[in-house]
Fold this sequence. Notes:
alpha+beta, Aminopeptidase, seven-stranded mixed β-sheet, 4 helices
Amino acid sequence: MRSEPTETQVRPGIEADLDTLTAIYNHYVRETAITFDTAVFTPEERRPWLLSHPEDGPHRLMVATDAESQEILGYATSSPYRPKPAYATSVETSVYVAPDSGRRGIGTLLYGALFDALAGEDVHRAYAGIAQPNEASTRLHERFGFAYVGTYREVGRKFGRYWDVAWYEKPL
């Protein structure tokens, strides 16, 4: 039996991860304003999202797992910023950490792996929208070189109130 903490591994997401990734996301749908989705998803409803993040190209899904148990601790994505062709070299990034895995550096590991994977891709800018307030996410993005560009005031309504979203960008 090992006495030291187990290590965390980061790898591309695969279809076998779908149930757990959906459960992590649904936690944020139900409990927080971090995402503006308001209804939980079934894994089958989330399958197109997962399949839109292949192992190569600008749209990635990176998954953090406990090296020993293989439990999924969180995930990070780079997704299309907007659907119009001129936006093709821009991505929107996000990180979701399992509810019981916060404050362990999982987000930092995930973003490190994601930006390493994007280094060889034709991506010019990464954008992140952070529902306010969210100091932990703001610190994470600033640590990775994201700069604040502006706030959309009261842009989303969830849980009976309006939420601001602060936008950040990072050159790649």
